[in-house]
């Protein structure tokens, strides 16, 4: 008896999502149905495709060998039922995301990409936009979502919109806005190192008032900076959505400033001469996901 497409789909999504429960939720069917299909597929093939590790299911070496072939089968099936040629795209794609953007957006982007194009094999790289832009120029990445990129004639850029941004202050400091540069220039401030987009935002805001921060520390990770602010170490300019949990927990306060800090501008970027079909696909998926999660400033 041949394996069914339903069995292959159950295996693919369980492998990708790490559990039968998440696969069942994604496919909108009952978990016992997923478990039965996995059992039947293993019996048909005479292979142990998955093994349990705590609460998670891990793919066995036999399962890893099978997974790319299953992904290609599902991609071909999607291509048959659609007239959209991008649905037939398969193979690796290297995607870079600015870290502040990735914290909230990587999970829905990954889910949307796997759902619509299971034949693609995304490799995700999370870093500062400055680093990602250099990697795009050097052909280390195929596409990236960057904050305030410098730009280069070798790169193609598609604007996405404004990422809501604010000064984030430890709640324990008890600062009330609106705050001016003169109010905070001497306080501890944490930023990504120069020439990052965050560093440019911070220094430009003070420079407009003829000032520069006197106690500026740098850290390469936006997520770590958020935790440092929550611990009361310093203040920073951060994406509003990234720190929602810390604001809700009462650890961080987003304060109004005069003048306001400018929102970051997000772009999808690729190197000229790359795979245009994959680039256009990523642009369309990102736009759809950002609309669905209401990420951008209206």
Task: Describe the structure in brief.
With 298 residues, the protein is of the alpha/beta class.
CATH architecture group name of the largest domain: 3-Layer(aba) Sandwich
Rounded mean pLDDT is 91
Number of domains: 3
Give a count of the beta strands, DSSP E runs of length 2 or more. Answer: 12
Low-confidence stretches: none
Question: What do these coordinates show?
Answer:
With 298 residues, the chain is α/β, with parallel strands linked by helices. It folds into 3 domains: 5-80, Arc Repressor Mutant, subunit A; 85-163 and 265-292, Periplasmic binding protein-like II (D-Maltodextrin-Binding Protein, domain 2, 3-Layer(aba) Sandwich); 165-262, D-Maltodextrin-Binding Protein, domain 2 (3-Layer(aba) Sandwich). Helices cover 43% and strands 23% of the residues. The chain has 11 helices and 12 strands. Strands 4-3-5-12-6 form a 5-stranded mixed β-sheet, with helices on both faces. It has a 3-stranded antiparallel β-sheet with strand order 10-7-11. Strands 1-2 form a two-stranded antiparallel ribbon. Helix 1 (5-17) packs across helix 2 (20-27), helix 1 (5-17) packs across helix 3 (31-45) and helix 1 (5-17) crosses helix 4. The chain is elongated and about 75 Å long. The N and C termini lie far apart (54 Å). The model has no long low-confidence stretch (mean pLDDT 91).
């Amino acid at each position: 008896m041949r394996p069914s497409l339903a069995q292959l789909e159950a295996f693919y999504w369980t492998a990708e999502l790490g559990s039968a429960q998440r696969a069942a939720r994604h496919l909108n069917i009952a978990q016992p149905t997923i478990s039965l299909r996995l059992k039947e597929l293993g019996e048909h093939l005479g292979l142990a495709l998955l093994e349990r590790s705590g609460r998670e299911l891990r793919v066995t070496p036999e399962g890893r060998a099978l997974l790319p072939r299953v992904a290609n089968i599902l991609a071909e099936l999607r291509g048959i039922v659609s007239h959209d040629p991008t649905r037939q795209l398969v193979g690796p794609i290297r995607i870079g995301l600015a870290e502040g953007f990735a914290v909230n957006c990587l999970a829905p982007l990954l889910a949307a990409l796997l759902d619509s194009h299971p034949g693609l094999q995304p490799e995700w790289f999370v870093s500062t936009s400055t680093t990602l832009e250099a990697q795009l120029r050097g052909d280390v990445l195929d596409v990236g979502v960057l904050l305030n990129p410098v730009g280069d004639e070798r790169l193609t850029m598609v604007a996405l919109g404004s990422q809501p941004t604010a000064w984030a202050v430890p709640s324990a400091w008890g600062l009330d806005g609106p705050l001016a540069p003169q109010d905070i220039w001497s306080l501890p401030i944490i930023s990504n190192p120069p020439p990052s987009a965050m560093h440019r935002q911070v220094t430009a805001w003070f420079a407009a008032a003829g000032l520069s921060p006197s106690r500026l520390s740098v850290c390469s990770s936006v997520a770590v900076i958020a935790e440092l602010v929550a611990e009361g170490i310093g203040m920073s300019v951060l994406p509003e959505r990234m720190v929602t949990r810390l604001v809700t927990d009462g650890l961080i306060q987003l304060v109004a400033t005069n003048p306001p800090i400018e929102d970051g501008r997000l772009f999808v970027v690729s190197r000229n001469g790359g795979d245009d079909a994959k680039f256009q696909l990523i642009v369309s998926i990102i736009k759809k996901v950002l609309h669905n999660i209401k990420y951008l400033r209206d």
